[in-house]
Each structure stands twice: as structure tokens, then as C-alpha cells.
Amino acid sequence: MQSDRKKTALITGASGGIGYEFVKLFAQDGYNLVLVARSEQKLNQMADELKGKFGIDVKVIAKDLANPAAPEEVFSELQQAAIKVDILINNAGFASYGLFHETDLTAELQMLQVNVMCLTHLTKLFLKDMVKQGYGKILNLASTAAFQPGPLMAVYYASKAYVLSFSEAIANELEGTGVSVTALCPGPTESGFQKRAAMEDSKLVSGQKIMDAETVAKIGYEALFDNKTVVVPGLKNKLLTETVRFTPRKLVTKIVRSMQESK
What we know:
- It is a single chain.
- By secondary structure, the chain is α/β, with parallel strands linked by helices.
- It has one domain: NAD(P)-binding Rossmann-like Domain (Rossmann fold), CATH 3.40.50.720.
- The chain contains nine helices and nine strands.
- The protein has helices spanning 17-28, 40-54, 70-80, 105-133, 154-173, 193-197, 213-225, 235-243, 249-260, and strands at 8-12, 32-37, 58-62, 87-90, 136-141, 179-184, 189-190, 211-212, 230-231.
- Strands 3-2-1-4-5-6-9 form a seven-stranded parallel sheet, sandwiched between helices.
- It is globular and about 50 Å long.
């Protein structure tokens, strides 16, 4: 599948939202692609369109990343196909909304599997070859949620705090290796995210003008190739992440709670 002249990007959560926008950006720049998401039919349709329009190779891997075995299965399938991944976009993730003592435990454990465990596992698997070859790029989708606690989305906010901390730490470890790590930290974004989290009535998103997935992906894409470690799209979001550093933690938590509540 992989030509000598083209690098390959693997994108999780590739079938929609920010992930799909990343797919388009890499395809436009001539990268071969590995698309990972649950919907095989949708991925195959995307692959046919991309191959026809851009003349690239596209490998489809339909996996539910909430399954702990999925990262190893993805890695093994690519090894068997002799596909080397040069760029890893850990985009897949989701949230749940509500009081922690009332929310569904199974859903939250699956969320941690996707947002934290799978991201870590895939990074571990592909990073070794990147370091060995002296080139590679990893983008992990964090969030402005990473910078403070999030009542009514306690597990999600905590998962994104992990992604940010993890990304910053290994970015430091990898200095001088030719491999970079970028944490993309968008605020609320127009995608299917809010609907899946059942938080469409939250004051954080209801009636608010929020950034579109295409803009977020473009900012992340540019930051990835500029080797930036942390990027927060949008002036309002940047100000928010800076302000919380100088505000008492208890007050920040109360403010986030009021923003998260339903109208």
C-alpha cells in the first residue's frame, strides 16, 4: 500500500467531526491514510472518494476503540500489511453528562478506555518505530476541559487533563529525536460531540457561537507541523485557559459548574 515517496497518517475517530476534517487536510497534502472508526460502511465510502479525488492509498480499519484489544489489533493489522505510520492523530473520544453518582458507569469506563487507555496504548505502539526512524508526529486531542475540574462532566474533564499532561511530558522526553507531540485543546466545537454526550441544553453550548470542526482541525494541523506542544484554538479559549491559572481552584470549579448546567 505505502509508496516510498508518501508518508502515512493514522487518524482515529476519522468518520466525523474534527477527525474527518483532519482526514481531508492530510488527503489534500497527498498523505496516505489509515482511517479508524466504528462504521466500516462510512469509512469505505470515504476511502473510495479520497482515493478517486487525491490518488492516495487509504486503509480502512473498522474498530470500536472502547474494546481494550483494539489498539493491538490495529497495530498488528498494519504490521501485517507492511504499513509504517509516520503521523498518529489520536482524535477519537467522547463524553458523558450528568451528576457522577447518577451517570452510567459502563459508559464512563468505555470513555476512559477511548480517551485515555487507547490513546496511550496507540502512542506506545507506534512511537518506538518513529523514534527508531528519527521522524514522527503525534497529535493528541485534549480540550480546554484539561485545564480545570468539570462538575457534571467530571470523568471527561479528568480524562482530558490526563491527555494534556501525558502529551507535554512525552514531548519533553522526545526532544532531539525528530519526533514531536502536540496536544490540541479546543473549546466547544460544532460536531456530533454534544449530541452524543446529551449536553445540547448545557449553557456551555446552547445558544453559544462555537468554533466549527474545520477551523479547529486547521489550527491543529498547522500546530502539528510547527512542532508546537500545546495549542488552544481561539482567543476566548486561550484567555480562559490562562485565567484559570490565577483564579482560586474552588472558584474555578463553581464557575465551570454554572456554565455546564442546563438552561
